[in-house]
Amino acid sequence: MARVLFEDTLTKDPSLRSAGVEVDSAGAIAGGAPATPNAIRLMREYGLDLSNHQSKLLVGRLVKWADLILVMQARQKQVVVSRYPGAAEKTYVLSEYVGEKGEVSDPIGCGIGAYEDCVAVLSSLLSKLAERLREEERNKGG
């Protein structure tokens, strides 16, 4: 959900698009599963499509490609950094990266309410992420 929500932000923000911001999604712990019915349904309510989504595991190629790796939880950061020590300086928990505390709870296995709560948290954090990236771009003179 975070990927499609942030991609939606990028399509609506010319400054981030022109800065070349790209987004991808990969699991630090697991991959290979389709989006859950609750995620598909909720994203559809936002006008976003997850129906063809297939999760993938984070691999070295993606780690090298990424300038920034954002995870939802501290344990995911530990997994990424233990597998890819060179990624330590570019791997952050999303909430910490945007100056907040806490983690984004994984709603898998829960009811639609947990998904709605997750999207509310993600939307707030991703809005702050977009602002931080715009600010970094302004500071670069871009």
Describe the structure.
With 142 residues, the chain is mainly α. It has a single domain, classed as Response regulator (Rossmann fold, 3-Layer(aba) Sandwich), CATH 3.40.50.2300. It has helices at residues 2-12, 14-18, 37-45, 60-65, 74-83, 94-97, 112-140; strands spanning 69-71, 91-93. The chain has a two-stranded parallel sheet with strand order 1-2. α5 links the parallel β1 and β2 (91-93). α1 (2-12) packs across α7. The two termini are 29 Å apart.
Short description:
The chain is built from 7 helices and 2 strands, in the order H-H-H-H-E-H-E-H-H. 52% of the residues lie in helices and 4% in strands.
